[in-house]
């Protein structure tokens, strides 16, 4: 399932109880956009959450969530990913970018009897004043995550 922002078929929701929203940002190549949180939005430790609602995932099966992400700028903050059935602890977290390049994140989603019904991308504001946290090309495939 392609959940990219330019032509995705997925149900994305902004969290109403967080501190700021994620916003669309144009890609450098001019082919669509990605979702981003600029470093200057909000105050240190403020959170912005973007939720992907998942429907029709089969119980007792596995999926792989693959996404592109970028943490650009000094002390820009943290990007975390939460699964709905594991609310309190992130299943993935990154807090600094080595450079401004896009990287690929992969998360295995194992369905038990209880299925995961959403994935949340959470941005936490850091001390920095420049740069951004970005997410793009979110894809859900059935089966285990492929090796690189």
From TrEMBL:
Pfam families: MAM. Coiled coil: none annotated. SMART domains: MAM. InterPro entries: ConA-like_dom_sf, MAM_dom, MAM_domain-containing. Residues 1-147 form the MAM domain. GO terms for cellular component: membrane. PANTHER family: APICAL ENDOSOMAL GLYCOPROTEIN PRECURSOR, MAM DOMAIN-CONTAINING PROTEIN. This is EGFL6 protein. It comes from Dasyornis broadbenti (rufous bristle-bird). The lineage of its organism: Eukaryota, Metazoa, Chordata, Craniata, Vertebrata.
């Amino acid at each position: 399932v392609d959940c990219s922002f330019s032509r995705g078929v997925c149900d994305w929701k902004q969290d109403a109880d967080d501190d700021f929203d994620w916003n669309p940002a144009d890609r450098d190549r001019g082919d669509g956009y990605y979702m981003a949180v600029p470093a200057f939005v909000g105050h240190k430790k403020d959170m912005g959450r973007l939720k992907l609602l998942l429907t029709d995932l089969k119980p007792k099966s596995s999926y792989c969530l693959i996404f592109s992400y970028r943490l650009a700028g000094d002390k820009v903050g943290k990007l975390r990913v939460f699964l709905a059935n594991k609310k309190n602890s992130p299943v993935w977290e990154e807090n600094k970018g080595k450079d401004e390049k896009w990287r690929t994140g992969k998360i295995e989603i194992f369905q038990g009897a209880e299925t995961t019904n959403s994935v949340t991308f959470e941005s936490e504001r850091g001390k920095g004043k420049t740069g951004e946290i970005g997410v793009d090309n979110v894809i859900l495939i059935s089966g285990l995550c492929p090796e690189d």
